[in-house]
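[09:14] KT: can someone run the structure on this one? pasting the chain below
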Amino acid sequence: MIKFVGRDDALSSLHHKLRERERVVICAIAGMGGIGKTELALQYSLSHQQTYAGGICWLQAGEVDVGTQIVNFARTQLDLQPPDDRELKDQVSYCWRRWREGEVLIVLDDVRDYQDVQSYLPSSAQSRFKLLITSRRQWLGESFELLNLEVLSEDDSLELLVSFVGEKRIAREINQAQQLCGDLGYLPLGLELVGRYWKRKQDLSLAQMRQRLGLSHRSLEKHSSDMTAKRGVAAAFELSWQELDESAQELGCLLSIFALAPIP
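[09:31] RB: done, structure tokens below
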């Protein structure tokens, strides 16, 4: 299991905001990906299961139609039977009206266009439904409370790397480790990808790792910290891609052309 570091204050703030408001958005500064929005929502859900007696419903905004996901969840998890002869929105409304008693947490992950999902969600008047959204957008309407996530600190970034490779390997090359965290923009996703890769490469030094990433001379280039982070994550993905043999890469290319929907 990935160690969850550097987000204790964010978890506490998130719970406080959901106690005060029914709708909260976890977003990233400058719309940056890989900062840990989904992981924060997941950790909050796991640590507050007892708070939401009515259940926790996780929805993927970028996959199957959200209304269909809600109806399927209600059928499989709550034993509700919305009438098949009604429109999807009516079926969703049926589910909200007959949902299990108690407070409910609805997590909507990776919302790109709020208008696409808005009509399926419970109204703000139904206050027992708490809506938690993750999004790269910082404005989804005045009814939402924002929780802005920043990148990890250097100490937390190092702690995350330690969780993969151990303290001894980091301590041997602490300066290189600090620079690597900077190369990756202190983003959890990039750090995780590199940490997993480095864990498999027992004989690889951090200096060699930075050379493979192609980021060891980033100080010679002029670009924003946001650009550095994006390049770092892209380079980390490239390391993982190079580990695959030709047939696995071909399979990856073929899978990439499928629609964004779950494959059973």
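[09:33] KT: thanks! Residues 225-243 form the longest helix (19 residues).
[09:34] RB: yep, looked fine to me
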